[in-house]
Every structure is written in structure tokens, then in C-alpha cells.
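Next comes this protein:
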Amino acid sequence: MNRGLTTVPGVEVGHVTDAEALTGCTAILVRGGAVGAVSIVGGATGTRNLDPLLPGHGSDRVHGICLAGGSNFGLAAVDGVLGYLRDEGVGVEYGGHRIPLVPGAILFDLASGEGTAHPDAAMGEAAARAAGSGPVEEGRVGAGTGATVGNLGQSMPGGIGSAGDVLPDGLAVGALAAVNCFGDVRDPETNEMVAGALRPDGSWMDTAAVIRARGLPLRPPPSQPEGNTTLCVVATNARLSREELGVVTRICAGALHRCISPVATNVDGDVVFGLSAGEQSAEPHRVALIAKELLERSIVRAVTEGRRITRMI
């Protein structure tokens, strides 16, 4: 069974989905705390409270990560995750208070559904309450509900994908991706196009080829190249420092480059978060390469599961 990110002990995942507004929130919780790190990949990110993930910050511990749709409005969902964890007694003790540390990141899905609804604190709290250690639900759920792929032409559904593995020596690694990318997605094992921009006749547009020929167009209707992003989380039970985990997230960014074309553009808000939540002994580059492969699998699963569930609906 593919448990996904929750393959790593102590990591919980919860989704809340608004099927009408086509938006949602995904909460990743580590109640016992974890070392965190981040790599910024895209040029149009929307984030909150990344400080504990950065070198030199006084605390290297985080207690969760919040991923949401809604563009910058969706960052309000972080408040709900914070409030839930505080009420559960989770966080850093300071001045007689428990203060959870929860970074957040958002993707643009405002054009996907009806109305102006977006994730808020109530949705963030609900996602945190829904978090558990069971297999991760995939497809058009949580932060991936309104995700699309190939936004230069007729887009296709994106979504949430996750993968995990436990090695014979006990090393556990997991990955999760909310894929809402401007570019096209290929399976790196076969180089097969699995999702992307379509021409009116239903054939593949090949976004990278169009940009090589003409450059990146500015808001050509009906496309919306300004609203994209792939949000990723990798986790392990390996005992890594923030600097070592930073190596892991940096190498894992290569998964986006292998699967998505083009990627890391100025219209993508791509982010890779890392969590070290255990005491397993492991060399960081080994962890990184395993996590990168799992993240590649997660990206492909996000769009294949997103399409499958859309067909079922």
C-alpha cells in the first residue's frame, strides 16, 4: 500500500476540499516537532513564516506545514492550523504559552471555481483536525482541488500526489506534491506526456516549444500564465540538521525539473519543504536521492489521480 508522506512516523496529513469553489487546504502536522528546511524554486511564491526553515534562525523546529489554494488570501488558513495545534498543546513553550511554528505556502486557483471563496482560518483548522497517519488521499483534494496543468492552452486537472518508502535498514522517506504548474508534466521514467496544455483539436501544445519559439506571452486569453505553482513536501525519519535538510530540499528541486517543462518560471510559485522527524542515522545525500525519486512519483501521481477522479465525477 502506498501510504505516501505518512510513511514517515509522526507525520500526519489532512485535507479539506471545497468542491463548489474548487479550492482547498492541506495540513501536514508533526506534533512532536521536526527540523525544517525549504528551497524556493519558482519566481512567484506566496509564503508565510519561512523563518524557522532558514539558516541562522534561532529555532530550527516546526510543527506543521499548511498548503492552500486561494492565492495570497489562502495564507489565512495557516491561522487555523496554528490555533488547532495550540489548543492541542503543541508548540514551543515561551512565556507560559505554547506557540506552534507552521510555515505556509499557497497556489493560485481563483479562476477554477465559482464565486470568490478561498481557504481561511476555519478551513485550515478543519484540515488540521482531519489530519491522520493513514494513507494520503490523492487527486483533486485539499490544496490540489482547483489545480490545473498546462495553463498556456486548454489546461488539464492537477491535484495532490504522494509516495513513500521504508528501506530495509529502517530509513523512511515520503513525499507529497500539489501540482498546479504552468508547464506540462512528463513521466521521467518513460518521457511520456501525462498532462499539459492542449490545442483546440485536443493535441499536445508542448509549452516549452511554444516559449522557445515565441517567448512567454503575457496573459493570452483564455490562459492564465500568472496563476500557477507546485508545492512540495519531503519528510524523513533521518536525523538531519537544518543545513543537511537544506541539501535534501535543494536536490529534490531537481524532481520538478525532471517532471515539469518549463518549471521555475516567474509565473510559478514552486516551493520544496523538508521535514526531519526522527532519529534514524542516514547520510543526507542518500536521503535526498531517495526523496527526489519519491517526489517525481508524487508529481506524476498528482496529475494521473487528478484526471482519474475528474473522469469519475
